[in-house]
Amino acid sequence: MTDRRLARRLRGALRRTRRDYAAGHDRPLGGYLAAMAGFAAYTAVLTTVVRRSGRPLPERPEPWDVVLTSVATFRLSRLLSKASVTSPLRAPFTRYVGPQGPAELHEEAQPEQGRHTVGELATCPFCMSVWVASALTVGRLLWPRATRTAMGTLTALAGADVLQLAYGALVDRTTGD
To answer: Highest mean pLDDT: which of 3-17, 60-74, 108-122?
Structure first.
């Protein structure tokens, strides 16, 4: 089989897969594949940096570090993907729809091929958390004191958010609003 025939058959198979999977919806599988490749490259670089640093890996994560990383990841992911103040970072890939909850925005990914996948990633705190948790974990391995300080700050912000929401709910309940 010639290279051209093989390439043509492969492209045909990919088109059929994309069409059959999408079920009539616009699903940018190529963009998702690029995002997965980007994440693989990102983690490969971070892993290489950690290995070359010569710092030993812990036998297992300490429970406190898992809790701290979880809360800090939650807060930083929401800050990056939903906060008004970080909307300039998302604007090239998204469109503003309206407010969504206290101090958060609802945005949609722009429909253009290259921007759609990045827009989905940039507006999804669940998607963003994979990248953030990886960065915080590497930060903890390379610069433990500075990273734990930053994670402590993000955790305090998450705690402050809970208190603000609880206070607002209490005020609403007691004033009848």
So the answer is: 60-74
